[in-house]
């Protein structure tokens, strides 16, 4: 009669192993997929327009991003120059007052009272000779990256 408990134990062992292993089997569920992010576009600097937000990639190209995402710079105005000859180093002086005026309208506070900074992106002599007369007025926060437009921020 001693054989019955031994036989039961021998039979229960494999059944227990099957039960445990089936609980640890790999299922066919798929891994969660990442939420798609808005695409970022690397573009030549000459293709950036008023309303674009971007991060700098190098001297000739930028990464245009949705303004709601963190970014370094926002183009708020585009000015056209009509000079026949390339103004050289005075180009910045020629557009500074016009960009500052557009800055006040865009941000909602005078440039001199603002915590934000301004930069101009002007044609090089090479692009000027190819007909480029557009100057971009760019606003940025020197202390941090920005999420959202700075339009009307009164900062």
Mean pLDDT: 77
Q: What structural class is derived from the secondary structure elements?
A: alpha+beta
State the strand order across the main sheet.
Answer: 1-3-2-4-6-5
Query: How helix-rich are the residues, as a percent range?
Result: 25-40%
Tell me the β content: 15-25%
Q: Give the topology string: H per helix, E per strand.
A: HEEEEHEHE
Radius of gyration: 31 Å
Main beta sheet: 6 strands, antiparallel
Total beta strand runs: 6
Distance between the termini: 92 Å
Shape: globular
Question: Number of DSSP helices?
Answer: 3
Runs in which pLDDT lies below 50 for 5 or more consecutive residues are 1-38
Which oligomeric form is depicted?
Answer: single chain
What does this structure look like?
- The radius of gyration is 31 Å and the shape is globular.
- It has a domain at 41-140.
- The longest helix is centred in the N-terminal third of the chain and has 21 residues, at 3-23.
- 28% of the residues lie in helices and 21% in strands.
- It is built from three helices and six strands.
- With 155 residues, the protein is an alpha+beta fold.
- A six-stranded antiparallel sheet has the order 1-3-2-4-6-5, with helices on one face.
- It has helices at 3-23, 91-107, 125-129; strands at 41-44, 53-56, 61-65, 73-80, 117-121, 134-140.
- A hairpin with a 4-residue loop joins β2 (53-56) and β3.
């Amino acid at each position: 009669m001693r054989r019955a408990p031994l036989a039961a134990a021998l039979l229960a062992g494999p059944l227990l192993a099957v039960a445990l292993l089936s609980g640890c089997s790999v299922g066919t569920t798929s891994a969660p997929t990442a939420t798609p992010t808005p695409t970022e576009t690397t573009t030549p600097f000459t293709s950036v327009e008023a309303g674009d937000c971007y991060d700098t990639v190098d001297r000739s190209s930028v990464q245009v991003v949705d303004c709601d995402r963190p970014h370094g710079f926002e183009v708020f105005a585009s000015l056209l120059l009509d000079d026949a000859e390339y103004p050289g180093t005075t180009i910045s002086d020629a557009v500074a007052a016009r960009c500052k005026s557009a800055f006040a309208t865009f941000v909602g506070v005078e440039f001199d009272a603002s915590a934000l900074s301004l930069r101009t992106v002007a044609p090089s002599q090479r692009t000027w000779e190819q007909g480029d007369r557009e100057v971009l007025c760019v606003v940025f926060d020197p202390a941090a990256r920005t999420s959202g437009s700075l339009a009307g921020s009164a900062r």
